[in-house]
Amino acid sequence: MKRHLTYLLLLVICPLMGWAQINTERVMAIGRNALYFEDYVLSIQYFNQVINAKPYLADPYFFRGLAKINLDDFSGAENDCTEAIERNPFVVNAYQVRGLARIQQDKLADAVKDYQKALELDPENIALWHNLALCRIRQKEYDAAKNDLDRLIIISPRYTKAYLMRGEVDLKQKDTLTAEKDFNRAIEIDRYDPDTWASRGMLYLMKEQYKEAEEDLGKAIHLSVRNPGLYINRALARYHQNNLRGAMADYDLAIDMDANNFIGHYNRGLLRAQVGDDNRAIEDFNFVIEMEPDNMMAIFNRGLLLDQTGDLRGAIKDYTRVLEEYPNFLAGYQYRATARKKLGDRRGAEADELVVLKAHLDMQNGVQKQTADNKEKTRKKSDKNMNNYRKIVVADNDGTEEKYKNDYRGRVQDRNVTIVPQPMFVLTYYEKPNDVKRQVYYYKYIDELNSQHTYPEALLITNEEAALTEAQANKHFASIDEQTSAIVANPNDVHKRFARALDFYLVQDLDNALNDLNEAIKCEPHFFLPYFNRAIVRYKQMEYERVAQDYEKKDNKLPGTMPALKGADHEMVKRDLDKVIELAPDFVYAYYNRGNILAALKDYRAAIVDYDRALELDPNLAEAYYNRGLTHIFLGNNRQGVQDLSKAGELGLYSAYNIIKRFTERTE
What we know:
- The protein has 668 residues and is mainly alpha-helical.
- The protein has helices spanning 5-11, 16-36, 40-53, 59-70, 74-87, 92-104, 108-121, 126-138, 142-155, 160-172, 176-189, 194-206, 210-223, 228-240, 244-257, 262-274, 278-291, 296-308, 312-325, 330-342, 346-364, 400-405, 444-451, 470-489, 494-506, 510-523, 528-552, 571-583, 588-600, 604-617, 622-634, 638-650, 655-667, and strands at residues 378-380, 392-394, 426-428, 460-462.
- The strands form two sheets. Strands 1-2 form a two-stranded parallel ribbon. It has a two-stranded antiparallel sheet with strand order 3-4.
- The longest helix is centred in the C-terminal third of the chain and has 25 residues, at 528-552.
């Protein structure tokens, strides 16, 4: 932490005794700010400083634990929450987060104790009842789970997840009739939640009602955003109805979404073989074998296909490998004998035929039992019976445990099922990696600054900011020192001011970033970049301050819950964006950001004007189509909204399709 000393001195250039408390509060606030914006590594560094200064406080331990759980350091998160509870045993969230950390370490009994204690403090907390019930299910305490879910439904009668979980418990107890009632009730409450349809679809699969299963899974797909598991399950329903082409189409889509989907490749390989598409079936089995080099069923199926396509030596090699692992697999000897005959290897063929003949004689004499092949069309993935090599693969479990394993509530990155606009654009050095990059965001003047190496790193325009690594955080702490020295030497250097403001912004010190941006604007009032980033800094300050206020009011909301934004706080942000547009009228991202602000103020028509202008300047800005589409929908112009969302999806914002499905279904 020595490398951070100079930066910390910037916070405490004052008498030690009089300002120590203020300094601690400030560092704590910056750490929580970093945590809210998912800069977990950076936030831990700030919380460490507070803990070193005041180890008797509970909050820094709790928030450090929250950061650690988001970095999958579950043991560290558990320890930190324990420290927080020892200092203040009345913080519900500390028990909740420790419970989550213990679940991830399979300490389910301890997690249950945490949730029970938290419920003593907050008996109507839906998230706590939800997680407690899931723990019970994983512990196979089904009666206790149902009791918890019954209580949750009394507290929140329209909470669909409770009905879905209770339905899953019904299935565990072989009560399909009650399960169906629970799933039906969940659909009645929220027919736009794909999980409700998916759960009932899986029930129908279990009951071998394949037509109904296909229909429900189809509705789940209609409402979902790129969920390969739904396509895998619908493919199974179609396969049982002998719709091989439909099943293959579903496997195609599942593999498009998840290129490494084992079941998708294996089953598509089997179906391709059934319809005579041998070469592409071989490609699928090659992929499976690359994933699982010891998968003997895949190797044997590939051998059969190589045999059919004339690669006899390759087929024999595959047959031999399987027989080395399963020396009693008679079909392997039969196929290898045939392949050896075709190659003229009479001696090898006769040896294989002799093994088969001897085995048949042993069966007739009762020495060896024949493995009877049942009439099931599917097999579990873990099934090693080679006689089932032609069967479609299904997952080893019914998907329930895995489905709910990651459905615990309370983590910062809880899935947000509400419809929210695309975020603001910022100027920064880093952005999240994106495998399907939609476009490069470009502005000529910024490109010129980068080509002149005006700043320590190339400026990026993005609305997908990346959290800093520890090395990057340390680099920007050091850069703050360097820029400070340069500013002392030349206080009117606007670019040094702006560079240090970026450093402060990246380490989540928004107050100091704002100070530097203010000074940069004083140095050069016609330089538009400080106005642009000042708007972002002010917006983020408002956003975080509201969350902090909610937390302080003991609303039991973990940081990460988006508050409703109010109008008065946006005026300064809007004024900065007005100034950017005045100074750089072709800077498309200022219009887009101002459109977002106006939409937040519910001035939808003015927001649409800004999105229109943004799209005039850049007709491929998918985010502007997306947000304009939502704005049209808020105004009741569903047709125009859907057209814009369709264009956003076409340009790569695939989440637009989920919204289209919801609103087109509502208007049908």
